[in-house]
Prior knowledge:
By secondary structure, the chain is α/β, with parallel strands linked by helices. It has helices spanning 24-39, 63-74, 77-82, 93-97, 99-105, 121-128, 176-180, 188-192, and strands spanning 15-20, 43-44, 53-58, 87-92, 111-113, 135-137, 164-165, 184-185.
Amino acid sequence: MQTVEVDEAVPKSRRVYFEVFGCQMNKLDAELMLEGLMQRGYQLVHDPEEAGVILYNTCSVRERAEERAVMRMTSFKRRKKEEPELILGLTGCVAQHKQEELAERAPWIDLIIGTREFDRLPDLIDEARGESQSILATEMDSPLEFVRQRNLGPQPWHAFVSVMRGCDMVCTYCIVPTTRGKEVSRPPEVILD
């Protein structure tokens, strides 16, 4: 992800540290989330100590990714106690699949946002600022928006292009339908645009 030097004019509450664990779809989702945040005046920073919002986008398919994200989120427990205005959030497949377990196990996490709710992230952050309990946003019936204005990846000429999300197959070994929902395809003309 692209980061910029910290602009001291941007309050800490509008600075976001974002880390992605897992697959390419998570990287694309992170870019879409960051774009929404940047449109609302948030700044991406490279150091979690400079951030007032810390987000981890997680993967359920890769077990180590899940463990690392939860472990890192646990490392902010003391800071959250010292800085109650700090917003901590887990997004992605782990959040979708283990929402209630996470809310019970890690009540200091403010946001648990699934794979179809991330377009609401800026509003959910605002909502979390006035809450004392974790906000769970894991509705699977939410419509998917594929809107992307720019590439926030490390190379401006390299981007992930999603042609579909989810899956209608219900293979016994696969978690994708549970975490990403039913298959939703994009029309070819939208992909080419």
